[in-house]
Amino acid sequence: MTTTIWHKKTIEEYLTALGSKSETPAGGVQAAFIGAQACAMACMSVQFTLSNKKYNDLHPKAALWLETLQLAQSTMLDLMQKDSRCFTKAMEIWQLPKETENRKEKMQEGFRLALHAPKLMVQTMINMYPIFKEIILEGNVNLVSDSLIAGECAVTATISALLNVKINTIYISDNCEKEKLQAAIIDWEKQAEQFSIFLKKQRETRFR
Fold it and tell me: Residue 1 burial (CB < 10 Å; 0-12/13-18/19+)?
């Protein structure tokens, strides 16, 4: 079966597929796409910081921002594909006949597959929060609205991916594994909430 490379489709083609009854793309792919968009938006703000002589002293730091953002964007695009492949495989497992040997174990494999890529998405986005903050606080002030949009997209990507982790964690039967996932979810939600509070404060103070 040929694997569709979602990020190489036109926007219209992608949205048509997203709105269809097809198994993929679905929530996980969309979460990764939003994360990639967050990184791209932030890259734009950084580019305008690098091209402005007013921010010459910041250029070395901004160059590192740009490099890191581009790597994260590439990672999120790769995770679109990883999620699509994993979810397709999970669906195949979940549709196995009830009389299938070791079906319960295989079902667990499906749930682990379904939460694997979203978990990586969450970690990637949260790791980028400090850079999004720095760009908002230090980057080209004329792009502050774009920088804030990038931050909001990063939070949306995080929460969207987290929902995919949470829904599949419910069905993990190994209590130790489940508890570790639940603890990680609580920590990730806390970090996303803290970043969201930061963004809210910026929205309230930067446009007066």
Answer: exposed
Identity of the residue numbered 137: L
Query: Is there a cis peptide before residue 118, judged by omega within 30 degrees of 0?
Result: no
User: How far from chain centre, in Å, is Cα 33?
Assistant: 7
Structural domain total, the chain:
1
Q: Is the pLDDT of residue 89 over 50?
A: yes
Kindly state whether residue 6 falls inside one of the protein's structural domains: no
Residues 66 and 47 sit within 8 Å (Cβ to Cβ): yes
Name the residue among 38, 208, 44, 52 with its Cα closest to residue 129: 38
Which among 55, 73, 179, 205 is positioned nearest to 132, based on CA atoms? 73
Residue 61 belongs to a domain with what CATH number? 1.20.120.680
| Residue 10 lies inside a defined structural domain of this protein | no
Determine the average pLDDT of the residues in 149-155: 99
pLDDT at 78: 96
pLDDT(138) > 70: yes
Q: Which domain holds residue 91?
A: 25-205
